[in-house]
Amino acid sequence: MEDNVQEFCPLDGSGWSFAAIPPKNARDKIMSAASHLFCNHGFAATGIDTILTRAGTAKATLYHHFKSKEELIAAVLEAEGETWRGWFFGRLSEVKGPARNRILAVFDILEDWFADPGFYGCPFINAVAEFDTGNDAVRKAADLHKQHLLTWLKAQAMEMKAPDVTETARSIAVLFDGAIVAAQHARDPSFARTAKAMAECYLDQQRG
Amino acid sequence: MEDNVQEFCPLDGSGWSFAAIPPKNARDKIMSAASHLFCNHGFAATGIDTILTRAGTAKATLYHHFKSKEELIAAVLEAEGETWRGWFFGRLSEVKGPARNRILAVFDILEDWFADPGFYGCPFINAVAEFDTGNDAVRKAADLHKQHLLTWLKAQAMEMKAPDVTETARSIAVLFDGAIVAAQHARDPSFARTAKAMAECYLDQQRG
DNA sequence: AAAACTATAGACAGAACGGTCTTGTTTTTT
DNA sequence: AAAAAACAAGACCGTTCTGTCTATAGTTTT
Question: N or C: which end of chain B has fewer CB within 10 A?
Answer without folding.
Answer: C
